Amino acid sequence: ENELGVQAPLGFWDPAGFTKSGDVEDFNHRRSAEIKHGRVAMYATMGYIVPEYYKFPGFCSPSLNLKFADIPNGIQALYKVPLEGWLQWVALCGFYEFVVNQPVNPKEPGNFGKGNLGITGKSIEDAAKRTRGLNSEIANGRLAMMALTGMFFQD
């Protein structure tokens, strides 16, 4: 009940019983995955919304004469962007995941030593403010995962 992410109105919610064993390492692994998925979902949600209002000028693929403005929003972009573009994106994300984004403390899920908002490089020193910030990140990540699911169905 005292873990990060335990928030009203549900409190500690584990309907599938993943934490019944009480294994702390397993819990930390699952929490780390939840935080990582939440961060990706927040970026993906922004990636769904921003192209409605702004697209990069220029070409996504000059050899195919494909401009950024020609790429549709949402899931339809999967079919318009060439395979090579998606492979570059996967390679970049893989590099970041396996080389850059290394955990600094296995007892703190989601802590990659990037600091506040991932840019300052140092952690929030006030314990209450840090707990509030981490709880907010988990809650916003959960919301983004649900929002992204809704956007997929809307498409």
Given the C-alpha coordinates, what overall shape results?
elongated
Please state the CA-atom Rg, rounded to the nearest Å: 19 Å
Number of helices: 4
Report the portion of residues in β strands. under 5%
Distance between the termini: 38 Å
The proportion of residues forming helix, as a percent range, comes to: 40-55%
Series of H and E elements:
HEEHHH
Identify the strand order in the major beta sheet: 1-2
Counting helices, strands and paired strands, the structural category is mainly alpha
Described by its quaternary structure, the protein is single chain
Mean pLDDT: 86
Main sheet?
Answer: 2 strands, antiparallel
The low-pLDDT segments are none
Q: Let me know the number of strands.
A: 2
Description:
Strand 1 and strand 2 form a beta hairpin. Helix content is 49%, strand content 3%. It is mainly alpha-helical. The protein is built from four helices and two strands, in the order H-E-E-H-H-H. The termini are far apart. Helix 1 packs across helix 4.
How are the secondary structure elements laid out?
Elements: H1 24-49, E1 59-61, E2 66-67, H2 77-80, H3 83-100, H4 127-154
Antiparallel strand pairs: 1-2
Helix pairs in contact: 1-4
Brief digest:
The chain is mainly alpha-helical and 155 residues long.
Top keywords for this entry?
4 helices; mainly alpha; two-stranded antiparallel sheet; 3% strand; 155 residues; 49% helix; elongated; 2 strands
